[in-house]
Amino acid sequence: MEKDHPFIPYTKEHYSEEEMTQRAKEFRDWAETRRSVRHFSNKHVPIEVMEELIMTGSSAPSGAHKQPWTFCLISNKELKAKLRELAEEEEYRSYNGRMSEEWIKDLAPLGTDWHKEFIDIAPWIVIIMKRAYEVGDEGKKLNNYYVSESVGLAAGFFLMAVHNAGLVALTHTPSPMNFISKALNRPENERPFLLIPVGYPADNAVVPDLSRKLKDSVIEYYL
């Protein structure tokens, strides 16, 4: 087993219980400042920054280490305009017939609607594609495992990397999202997972005055 699949030593720094608790709290406090932002600046963000953020996302764990994702990195203005047009067409239909009244009511505190101007304004659009399978020799389909779970983890790593870089993002999921595959000419084995604008917040950016669930609502203890 080890001969066919070699292993290498792994080491990790250790902390005292007190320092570990402090580090965990400090990271949690910092993570709490991350917000989904809908008001973007068009200020330039270097492509090198975006590449590093994406590669952080790609460091996430995945089923059988298949890494079943593709990050599409878009700055082309014409393509962004086309994506906005197509996204708004789908979102208009959703807000005017597809969504239930309850769903629309739940979205109301977020101040969102079918207009998606951030797709034009943000300097970068990242579209995460999940790879349902791989294509081997002679077109043979090769399995990927736990694809949605794996890509969700990669998206989470990416969002925290964006936050760490001093930038903001928004997770956008127009439904259905088939238009993305067609607009980007992606292969049949890929499915759109998230559309994420990335950039600086606009000078006048605001976010909803929301609170996150408290510990007692999130954790169930089995001690």
Summarize the SSE layout with pairings.
Elements: H1 17-31, H2 47-57, E1 69-74, H3 77-98, H4 101-107, H5 118-121, E2 124-131, E3 133-135, E4 141-143, H6 147-164, E5 168-169, H7 178-184, E6 190-199, H8 215-218
Helix pairs in contact: 2-6
Q: Provide the structure class.
A: alpha+beta
Beta-strand portion reads: 5-15%
- Name the average pLDDT: 94
| Inertia-based shape | globular
Helix content: 25-40%
CATH fold-level label:
NADH Oxidase
Number of helices: 8
Describe this structure in words.
- This protein has helices at residues 17-31, 47-57, 77-98, 101-107, 118-121, 147-164, 178-184, 215-218; strands spanning 69-74, 124-131, 133-135, 141-143, 168-169, 190-199.
- By secondary structure, the protein is an alpha+beta fold.
- Strand 3 and strand 4 form a beta hairpin.
- Helix 2 (47-57) packs across helix 6.
- The longest helix is centred in the middle third of the chain and has 22 residues, at 77-98.
Offer a few descriptive terms.
6 strands; 14% strand; NADH Oxidase; single chain; two-stranded antiparallel sheet; 223 residues; alpha+beta
Give a short synopsis of this structure:
By secondary structure, this protein is α+β, with helices and mostly antiparallel strands.
